[in-house]
Amino acid sequence: MNRRKPTAIDLFCGAGGLTLGLKKAGFEVAAGVELKPEIAKTYKANHRKTKLLIKDIRQVTGKEIFRLTSKKEIDLVAGCPPCQGFSQLTEKYKRYDSRNDLVLEMARIVEEIKPKMVMMENVPGIATKGKKILDAFVYKLKRMGYVVNTAVLQMANFGVPQSRRRFVLVAGKGFEVTLPKPTHARKVDEKGKLKPWVTLADIVKSIPNPKKLSYAKKNGGPEKFNWHVIRDLQEISMKRLKAIKEGNNRLALPCYLRPKCHKTKKVGFQNVYGRLSWNNVSGTITTGCTTPCMGRFGHPTEDRTISIREAALIQSFPINYRFKTKFMDVACDLVGNALPPIFARLAGKKCFNALRNNQGAKNG
Question: Among residues 80, 83, 289, 332, which one is catalytic?
């Protein structure tokens, strides 16, 4: 049996959470593709052996990938296309998001490279709001001979300390790749086969206090403090945080502290200005993870939000993972848009084993 290390490429690679997971699963990630140079700095800092194309995916070809990597074949094409156009958070906007078409660009790359397997992750909305595009993607894969499996999975069920539902697709060319099975559960079953959800306290309770962004900028920059950095909040935001106890959201605010748009409304996103709970998983980490008005990102007991580093730990990045930027908004994008590496490793391992089993069956 051929025991070479299987190769993968990571499209839309961002901070590199997917790449990190695939490497831990046993893959050589030969190449990554990222559009934004400032985002690419972080990927390069953490994955130095991976060839990186800083380029619009629309302009990338399969031949270019082969030339870049000096590989004759690629075992896995994996990617997390931009999800904003399919997200519930953008539901109120009726205009079409051109980034949605990038899913089909991934299909084109697959057609040109002809990998043995495909993995794709996105928000659950791709199966509803983006159904037409997803159906076209799956149709193209099946036409090329791939056996496709899909599901919407809860990341907390795989050891990620966060409630984060994600659509996941895996496919093998002429063979099946199965989705990973949960390793954790909200309530432990009687047989004890599944571990309890990993809580916020399990991950960040022992971390010392962060630095404010203004302080970090004056004292060597946020990277010097391992991006354990928070925003300097406005006075009104501080008052709102102080008025809310652990686990509560904007509905617990006294009327005089509520934003005008929420004074008389109980509809809409209720987690804004909320505090996290030590004994529960975090809510979904987004690109607004250091801004109180954008979600339940308040620290459980301190009058602040979580820091960039705390958000990264909740996303399951290791504490020594480098975020190579001096800009807070970029750091938030890097962390909030990432696929949790813990889950990427589990999904990658299913691909790794399916490939080995298929090769063994052929050789046998």
Answer: 83
pLDDT tens digits for range 236-255: 889 988 889 888 887 778 77
13 is catalytic: no
Q: Of 36, 34, 31, nearest to 8 (Cα)?
A: 31
CATH number of 200-336: 3.90.120
User: What is the rounded distance in angstroms from the CA atom of residue 314 to the CA atom of residue 278?
Assistant: 12
Which pTM value belongs to this model? Answer: 0.92
The dotted CATH code for 7-188+339-358 is: 3.40.50.150
Contacts of 33 (CB under 8 A, 6+ apart): 9, 10, 11, 12, 13, 52, 53, 55, 57, 60
CB 292 within 8 A of CB 241: yes
Domain ranges of the chain: 7-188+339-358, 200-336
* Distance linking the first and last C-alpha atoms of the chain: 9
